[in-house]
């Protein structure tokens, strides 16, 4: 068995490494292209996403945690995040380098740079000097064999077209709702339509911070518990399908209120992870010393910010309105195709009800003669990554790359020509 | 002498000053900026003093796979001035280069066409379930509230408590 693996590894001409750079929620994703299972076996580690950040813990003062090293940390209260990204753009190279050094390094992936291609995704309209810096660092510092840079939507659309039963789809509208912001991007085949790219400055970070803020004001001071409150958000928040009706339910008392949940916060001595308290015990006094917060209208009014940013004073369109606005910026012939092929990616797509609500709202605003279809895979976070795997297996992959030799010959200009970022 | 004679009522009225619309907007912007922050607390390791005399044990210092000479050499190369730009500088640079073409600025969505919905700033419920269009606002700071009870909470805890 062991022998077989080694042989496989040798038979791979080059390994492709896929790295997604984006905010925190969008973790850096790393894999071995040609056979991710090989990689899993070899390292005894499942392929997984790594938080793209450096974390300092309050209780552990002699070290910092890079990426997924945070799993070694026992006390996750009061974590302090160092992020390389500001508003979704790579600003702090010092931090990003620590993360990359860790991921590519011996203790994690042990990348053989001379024999590895990397696919790296960037936000839309990434600033030119960041693009240049990414290319330069990957080629000159890490010395990768070859690099492919693109937007994550590019990988999403290739995965989406691949998945569609009838491969006659011409257009798709990619919604990428991540940590720092949400982008809506129309694609015609694999080309993005630049004037249609729209950004809402609401992402998972704002939702978590908003939840932190209202819980701190109404119940318990949790402002410095970003990590814990993010888990609370992931555990209890949902997107309401009928906002005002749910508000009325949330106002009711005792058993008539089907929305309220008690959440047991972790104390990291007895309770290692927070969880929803059994609804059976609701109303009874908590036993022992557990700390409980009660989430009622918070459960759906927080994700509601994505659909109505103006609720918290952000004067921007909501997601469904943005979809309509973005499509209206494209040639009219494309509209039916775009409405019919809406793809949701990004961590916020995991919120229960997200897809249904988006469908309802877009359906209400779209012209009635057009069909609306929204798809969201079970794992919207990894969806672009899967597209990257597909792409790297494609026979044309080598033509799209820029190799180190080419970079040395033609310089950064070739990257500008070949990569559509 | 003059200060002593000032009445309590005047002092009281000053503390209850009504914010003008500019100050209210400023406060709201501050609140939105706070939502963008990655951390609320200060760096917990900021007060760490690394003593040079303290012995450095290998396992206590978190060293990545490559430290030492190679990394140092690369560092100096990498952190060149041009990669050290903050967000504002990058934005300005982009605007100079792209002009009117689609870019970061143009990609941002415009304000919504739909009217704003109002919620009680204390309990978070929509004011009168939007059947009653005019809801109440705090005279001083302009925050919305739904009932006398919430107004009381607001005045005790929040009204003008975080300074603009």
TrEMBL record, chain A:
Output the Pfam families linked to this UniProt entry.
Actin
| GO CC aspect terms | cytoskeleton; nucleus
Main localization is cytoplasm
Record flagged with keyword Nucleus = yes
Checking CDD domains in the record gives: ASKHA_NBD_Arp6 (cd10210)
Keywords from UniProt, A to Z, are: Cytoplasm, Cytoskeleton, Nucleus
Q: Which InterPro entries match?
A: Actin, ATPase_NBD
Q: Which family does it belong to?
A: Belongs to the actin family. ARP6 subfamily.
Q: What is this protein called?
A: Actin-related protein 6
TrEMBL record, chain B:
Q: Which GO terms describe its biological process?
A: chromatin remodeling
Which residue intervals make up region (Disordered)?
Answer: 1-75
Q: Output a single Gene Ontology CC term carried by this record.
A: nucleus
GO MF terms, alphabetically ordered: zinc ion binding
CDD domains given in the database record: zf-HIT_ZNHIT1_like
Q: Which UniProt keywords apply?
A: Metal-binding, Zinc, Zinc-finger
User: What name does this protein carry?
Assistant: HIT-type domain-containing protein
What is the scientific name of the source organism? Paralvinella palmiformis
From the broadest rank down, the organism's phylogenetic lineage runs: Eukaryota, Metazoa, Spiralia, Lophotrochozoa, Annelida
